[in-house]
């Protein structure tokens, strides 16, 4: 996936340039299909810093054990997301730092913590939807795992927001279109990804604005949405309607695309490794109910280990970006203000110093622990002030899904099996996921 006619690394500001870029599209084909091999080779040959290009601009890829320190480095911030990804990040806490970020995060945080998830009854909706998914997959004997998982996770969030079943199809269509913004293609012409994504954003925002207005009139009756509308930051200040709508749009987008990829990989891995399925059924096959609270999740340590190992092996975002807010220094190199850096999440998740035998799927590495995972162990969710708001929701959904699948599989005497003889190769844009055509049979 590298350009064979571009083999010279070259230098930019004294830092090596990854060879193999194509005209106009740069390293996009490489990143799309061969990211792990490419980054590992680049680190071995050129060190922990290397330039890559998308054809539209330059990105400084930062690898090695110190990469995630950039999440806490005040010389780098997230302001670029407001202009680079305005359709997705505009007006959200994702593109804010400092006081503005603390205000948004402080108000939104409580409903997403374990206590908030329990209070608003989120787990009951999760259990209902994922129980239906498991029954359908195992009952009919097959699943096209990625698109069907995407449908399920969208349904969960839409139900939490109070969207009626008759409207779900329209909302799904608009969100699938909004995802085009994640491709980063900013060229505008009628029907282009950027234009289509902007139209989808306008449709979504108009309807969310009406939903927020309704929830403000009676927060107690609006469930999870009511909790978000009523939430306040540490200074007792509530969010504006515009801020709630922008962050809701982001929460739905991030909360379904990342979790669905994790669910797809978990299913594929269980189908590929029969011993893992047997261990899951032993733990969860006789469960009386699907867990609906974070406290109940703790009764299924193997299912939780499957979740943690799945996101380690297949972090939804292989890298996360920050931009230099000032002239600064990084690993002995001068970095100019405005330089965009990519923090290597995939490499951090596969670093042998933290995870021995990093390319082997080993849920056992998470079992028998007395403390919470370290920051580097859960770097797939970011770190520092921008640590993923939906971490606990992802944890709850993952374990609920694993338990639901095991219960249904044991009830019907079926187990998952990959239809293809080969384990599916990863695709890395916009998130790491198996091919959409990947099928798992239940036999």
Topology record:
Blueprint: E1 11-12, E2 15-16, H1 28-46, E3 49-53, E4 58-62, E5 76-77, H2 81-84, H3 86-89, H4 98-112, H5 114-119, H6 122-140, E6 142-144, H7 145-160, H8 168-178, H9 193-217, H10 223-230, H11 241-272, H12 274-284, H13 294-297, H14 301-313, E7 319-324, E8 328-330, E9 333-335, E10 340-344, H15 345-349, H16 391-412, E11 416-418, E12 439-442
Parallel strand pairs: 4-10
Antiparallel strand pairs: 1-2, 3-4, 5-7, 6-12, 7-10, 8-9, 11-12
Please give a structural write-up.
This protein has 443 residues and is of the alpha+beta class. The protein has a domain at 96-313 and 359-432: Cytochrome P450 (Cytochrome p450, Orthogonal Bundle). 48% of the residues lie in helices and 10% in strands. It has 16 helices and twelve strands. The strands form four sheets. It has a five-stranded mixed β-sheet with strand order 3-4-10-7-5. A hairpin with a 2-residue loop joins strand 1 and strand 2. Helix 9 packs across helix 11 (241-272), helix 11 (241-272) runs parallel beside helix 16 and helix 14 crosses helix 16 (391-412). The longest helix has 32 residues, at 241-272. The radius of gyration is 22 Å and the shape is globular. The model has no long low-confidence stretch (mean pLDDT 91).
């Amino acid at each position: 996936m590298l350009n064979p006619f571009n083999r010279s690394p070259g230098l930019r500001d004294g830092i090596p340039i990854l060879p193999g870029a194509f005209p106009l599209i740069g390293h996009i084909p490489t990143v799309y299909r061969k990211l792990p091999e490419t980054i590992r080779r680049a680190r071995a040959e050129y060190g922990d810093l290397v330039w890559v290009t998308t054809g539209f601009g330059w990105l400084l890829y930062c690898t090695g054990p110190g990469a995630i320190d950039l999440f806490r480095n005040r010389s780098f911030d997230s302001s670029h997301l407001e202009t680079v990804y305005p359709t997705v990040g505009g007006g959200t806490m994702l593109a804010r730092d400092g006081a503005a970020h603390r205000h948004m995060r402080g108000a939104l945080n409580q409903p997403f913590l374990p206590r908030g998830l329990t209070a608003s009854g989120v787990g009951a909706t999760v259990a209902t939807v994922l129980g239906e998914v498991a029954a359908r997959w195992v009952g009919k004997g097959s699943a096209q795992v990625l698109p069907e998982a995407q449908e399920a996770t969208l349904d969960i969030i839409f139900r939490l927001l109070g969207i009626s079943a008759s409207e779900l199809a329209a909302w799904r269509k608009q969100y699938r279109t909004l995802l085009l913004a994640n491709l980063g293609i900013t060229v505008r012409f009628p029907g282009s990804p950027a234009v289509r994504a902007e139209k989808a954003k306008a449709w979504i925002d108009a309807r969310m604005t009406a939903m927020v207005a309704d929830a403000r009139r009676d927060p107690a009756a609006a469930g999870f949405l009511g909790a978000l509308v009523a939430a306040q930051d540490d200074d007792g200040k509530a969010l504006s309607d515009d801020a709630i709508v922008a962050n809701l749009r982001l929460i739905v987008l991030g909360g379904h695309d990342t979790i669905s990829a994790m669910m797809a990989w978990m299913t594929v891995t269980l189908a590929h490794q029969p011993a893992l399925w047997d261990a899951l059924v032993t733990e969860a096959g006789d469960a009386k109910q699907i867990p609906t609270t974070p406290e109940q999740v703790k009764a299924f340590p193997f299912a939780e280990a499957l979740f943690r190992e799945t996101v380690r092996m297949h972090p939804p975002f292989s890298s996360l970006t920050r931009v230099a807010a000032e002239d600064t220094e990084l690993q002995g190199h001068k970095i100019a203000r405005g330089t965009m850096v990519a923090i290597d999440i995939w490499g951090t998740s596969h670093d042998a110093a933290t995870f021995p035998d990093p390319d082997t799927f080993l849920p056992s590495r998470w079992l028998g622990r007395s403390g919470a995972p370290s920051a580097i162990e859960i770097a797939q969710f970011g770190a520092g002030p921008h640590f993923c708001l939906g971490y606990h929701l992802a944890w709850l959904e993952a374990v609920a899904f694993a338990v639901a699948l095991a219960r249904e599989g044991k009830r019907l005497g079926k187990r998952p099996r990959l239809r293809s003889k080969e384990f599916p190769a990863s695709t890395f844009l916009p998130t790491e996921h198996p091919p959409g055509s990947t099928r798992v049979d239940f036999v």
